[in-house]
Write a structure and sequence with these properties.
By secondary structure, the chain is α/β, with parallel strands linked by helices. The chain has two domains: 134 residues, HAD superfamily/HAD-like (Rossmann fold), CATH 3.40.50.1000; 78 residues, Orthogonal Bundle (Transcription Termination Factor Rho, Rna-binding Domain, Chain A, Domain 1), CATH 1.10.720. 46% of the residues lie in helices and 11% in strands. The chain contains nine helices and six strands. Strands 3-2-1-4-5-6 form a six-stranded parallel beta sheet, with helices on both faces. Strand 2, helix 6 and strand 3 form a beta-alpha-beta unit. The protein is globular.
Length: 227
């Protein structure tokens, strides 16, 4: 493989799943009311408008901001990959990081591998169902320091769902690279299947609790990939 770029998942790959479900999601739920004080923010206002429209389509013509918060809480419980939810989570998490109430988790093998790949001239890119804002915040405020200077680009569900072939085609075009020049790292076999069908190279990261697949090369740490 002549790899020019790495495309990397977050949850279960660079970062513990428990950090997402036991730290980030609860933090959002605890502080979701802050969104009502941020309705002057164009992103928050647009997200609220879109969710109200969704509620109206579901038979609630007079949907209020309180109804929007209830819908957001429901989506969190259902682990929905709604773009508006992800955008609003990113805004609340931004406040948490800036207040130093949150610190992004990374597995110990991630930071040295990222440094080594960057020094080799490999482009490092992130693709997660979490919003681009949330991705940047996590990598800017990790326990290992700020990784954003060595990261090239970030992709979220606005590029397409992670289990759809077209999403990886879109990302390849955005990076201006042939699919065969890109290596995708993820813990989820279905995502890797879609990436492979799009022409990307793939490796499944199998950490504690990961369901091991059979369609892709396996690595338990980023150190194994580097070596």
């Amino acid at each position: 493989m002549n790899i020019k770029a790495i495309l990397c998942d977050i949850e279960g790959t660079t970062t513990s799943v428990s950090f997402v479900y036991e730290t980030l999601f609860p933090y959002f739920e605890q502080h979701i009311g802050r969104l009502l004080t941020l309705l002057h923010d164009p992103v928050v206002a647009e997200c609220f408008l879109q969710i109200k429209q969704t509620l109206q389509q579901q038979g609630k013509p007079d949907a209020s901001s309180a109804d929007v918060l209830a819908k957001l809480r429901q989506w969190v419980l259902e682990d929905k990959k709604e773009t508006t939810l992800k955008a609003l989570q990113g805004i609340i998490w931004r406040e948490g990081y800036l207040r130093r109430e949150l610190k992004g988790h990374l597995y110990d093998d991630v930071f040295p591998a990222f440094q080594a790949w960057h020094q080799q001239g490999i482009s490092l890119n992130i693709y997660s169902s979490g919003s681009v804002t949330a991705q940047k915040l996590l990598f800017a405020h990790t326990e290992k320091g700020d990784l954003t200077p060595i990261l090239n680009a970030y992709f979220d569900t606005t590029s397409g769902a992670k289990r759809e072939v077209g999403s990886y085609q879109n990302i390849s075009q955005s990076l201006n690279l042939a699919a065969t020049d890109i290596l995708f790292l993820s813990d989820i076999e279905a995502e890797l299947d879609a990436a492979k069908e799009a022409g990307l190279n793939t490796i499944q990261i199998v950490r504690a609790g990961t369901e091991k697949g059979s369609n892709h090369p396996i690595a338990h740490t980023f150190t194994e990939i580097s070596s």
